[in-house]
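Below is how a single chain appears once it has passed through the pipeline. First comes the sequence as given, then the structure the pipeline wrote out for it. We keep one example in the README because the format questions we get most often are answered faster by looking than by reading.
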Amino acid sequence: MKIILLDIDGVLADFVGHALKLLHKEEVIVDRWDFYDQLEMTAKEFWNAIDKAGHNFWANIPKLPWADHIIEQLQLNIHDTEHKIILCTSPTNSPYCVSGKIEWIHKNYPQFKDYFIITPCKTLLGGRDNIVIDDNEMNCESFNSMGSHTVLFPQLWNSNKDLINNRIQFFHKRMDCIAKLLWHRMISF
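Resulting structure:
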């Protein structure tokens, strides 16, 4: 079975916006991956504040405006039984993060309640013909080196930031290209 690993935070869930609201820093525009200095905090201070917010922080992260569309389009475009969509996300060191993420999945996308992976080692899931949709550029690079096909989802903190006003159009074009590539590989064997 080939899998489509769909990241949650930054693709489906507004982790950054939710964290900024928690910290009363909604005016900050996050434009890089390690954005703690933009908040005038250390990484430790940032994650301590998130951990202190506990399970409810993770369970109540708002969906991004395009999240349902991405899920619908992926489900519509999976025509064969060889591909399975798996929600895939990395946890923090807090056990509340894992329980909150599980509740988030059950609440927002119950159809994936048996199809999710929470792991700090996402790249162990890479493989030939797997598709990864993620906003973390380093994750995408690692998956590419293992033969996976990747979609670097446009966000201000990655190199696709110039595409943030056309995220959905970009997503459709990338998925069309990947589908054609996979179809070509299936018929060439």
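Residues 19-57 form one domain.

See the next section for the split statistics.
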